[in-house]
Specification:
The chain has one domain. The protein is mainly α. It has six helices and no strands.
């Protein structure tokens, strides 16, 4: 329960600081850089070595691929309906099916299930990145 309170407090603090202009414009770049280049890689490197690889990980591994395939089907339908050009359709494929879920996903996994399940979240996040890297390279 304390994790949910922490998440709510952080969101509220961000809203209050933004509303009253306490921080200078663009100050979010520093924390975003730290999260992307330090915190998320550190979390991944902490939890991936503790994984016991088994068939139980098949679902977390294929989930990003299934989401991307669903997004691809949706993109095909929407692009035909709205007559998207090739580049717009490719961008639609990428942004609808994949995302960096670790920003919100890791804290929520920790809050709902506990820290021991962050290794599964790290596996899913890495597979999502792999799917993005492979398919974005192909369609773009």
């Amino acid at each position: 329960m304390s994790n949910f309170i922490l998440i709510a407090v952080c969101f509220l603090a961000g809203l209050v600081l933004r509303k009253f202009g306490v921080l200078p414009k663009g100050s979010h770049h520093g924390i975003n850089g730290w999260i992307i280049y330090v915190a998320l890689p550190a979390a991944t490197l902490k939890y991936l070595p503790t994984i016991v690889w088994s068939t139980d990980l098949i679902i977390p591994l294929i989930t990003p691929l299934i989401c991307w395939i669903g997004a691809w089907l949706l993109a095909e339908l929407v692009s035909k309906r709205f007559h998207f050009d090739r580049k717009t359709k490719a961008a639609f494929w990428i942004v609808t099916g994949l995302g960096n879920t670790s920003f919100i996903g890791f804290p929520l996994i920790s809050a709902y299930y506990g820290e021991k399940y962050l290794s599964i979240a790290a596996v899913t996040d890495q597979m999502s990145f792999f799917t993005l890297a492979v398919f974005a390279s192909i369609v773009l």
